[in-house]
Specification:
With about 350 residues, this protein is α/β, with parallel strands linked by helices. The chain folds into two domains: about 230 residues, TIM Barrel, CATH 3.20.20; about 100 residues, no CATH class. Helices cover about 35% and strands about 15% of the residues. Helix 2 packs parallel to helix 3 and helix 9 crosses helix 13.
């Protein structure tokens, strides 16, 4: 089955392939390659300062005239619980000492900022073709300003109820994020992981529930998965893990090696790196503290004492403390330049449909 072309026309792209924004794993180079090949490239902005976002957007626009997506988190920042934070730091202290670090020197400030007035002003100035959100949507007054720029707005839903809410709030298309997906779960109306469902069950239910294009995400890395998503009513797919081994991804050598060696059953949903459920490869920290640690501080505060461990361990060739975000189909990822991968997937889709 072929997808409805209405989403392609809406977003101004040639192929029904959206590159998932992957904070910490990419910057503008990956977005440029995918957009220039006819898909929709994305720049994750959650870890970037406004000046960095401006610089990355300028780099994209110098390299390609094609549309691209700016992605933002819109979580509600949890309040700091000093007792809980102190206990979490104490739990991580043995790892700090093992690597020769001072546990008391770990940074206290969270690195991930939710969408706010500063980001909104930046969007109004930059006017990208597409804006996407994770963890729901920003406050209505901010969303109204984003919509007024003419940007097409996407957001992730992990349940049918979330999809209905996003549609009623004014989104132009919905990303149906199945449980197979890598990275942070986009869930915002529920905290119950036990009720989260897979992509192939979620997509047709959202397609039936809303009158908007649906973008399938989670466990899709090749034309077989894309074609299956189309058969269930998806208008396009969003791929993240499929692009992780591309040279444009900004992964460390140790991180790449871990992905290459990954086994199909090696991923798990964990909260030990940030305080919010996210899927990645199981490593030492997940095995010893999780995968779901009930004592982890809320998002994003759990990540502060974990962050210093990563560069020291990676310098020694270890990914024991690296969040190896990826989906369940990581074993199917191909090592190709991102533009070539996008064009090859598009050709494979045409052959299969």
């Amino acid at each position: 089955m072929s997808p409805d072309r209405s989403l392609l026309d809406l977003l101004g792209i040639d192929h029904p392939i959206l590159q998932a924004p992957m904070a910490g794993a990419q910057r503008s180079a990956l977005a440029i390659a995918v957009s220039d090949a006819g898909g929709l490239g994305a720049l994750p902005c959650a870890l970037l300062r406004p000046a960095d976002i401006r610089d990355e957007v300028a780099a994209i626009r110098r390299a390609t005239p094609r549309p691209f997506n700016l992605n933002f988190f819109c979580h509600t920042d949890t309040s700091v619980d000093p007792i809980r934070e102190s206990a979490w730091r104490a739990r991580l202290a043995p790892y700090h000492r093992e690597l020769g670090l001072d546990p008391d020197a770990a940074p206290a400030a969270p690195a991930r900022a939710p969408f706010d007035d500063t980001h909104c002003e930046l969007v109004e100035q930059l006017r990208p073709a597409v804006i996407s959100f994770h963890f729901g949507l920003p406050a209505p007054r901010l969303l109204d300003r984003v919509l007024a720029t003419g940007a097409k707005v996407l957001s992730s839903a992990t349940t049918v109820d979330e999809a209905r809410w996003l549609a009623d709030a004014g989104c132009h298309a919905i990303i149906a994020q199945g449980l197979e997906a890598g990275g942070h779960r986009g869930m915002f109306q529920t905290a119950d992981l036990a009720t989260q469902i897979g992509t192939m069950a979620l997509v047709p239910q959202i397609v039936d529930a809303i009158d908007l294009p649906v973008i399938a995400a989670g466990g899709i890395t090749d034309a077989r998965g894309i074609t299956a998503a189309f058969a269930l009513g998806a208008a396009a797919v969003q791929l993240g893990t499929a692009y992780l081994l591309c040279p444009e991804a900004t992964l460390s050598p140790a991180h790449r090696a871990a992905l290459r060696a990954a086994r199909p059953e090696q991923t798990a949903v964990t909260n030990v790196f940030t305080g919010r459920p996210a899927r990645g490869l199981v490593n030492r920290l997940i095995r010893e503290l999780g995968p779901l640690a009930p004592d982890a501080p809320g998002f994003p505060h759990a990540g502060a004492p974990v962050a210093p461990l990563r560069p020291v361990a990676e310098a020694q060739g270890s990914t024991d403390f690296t969040p190896l975000w990826c989906g369940q189909a990581v074993h199917l990822a191909r090592e190709l330049p991102a533009g070539e991968l996008t064009r090859r997937l598009a050709a494979e889709i045409r052959q299969s449909t």
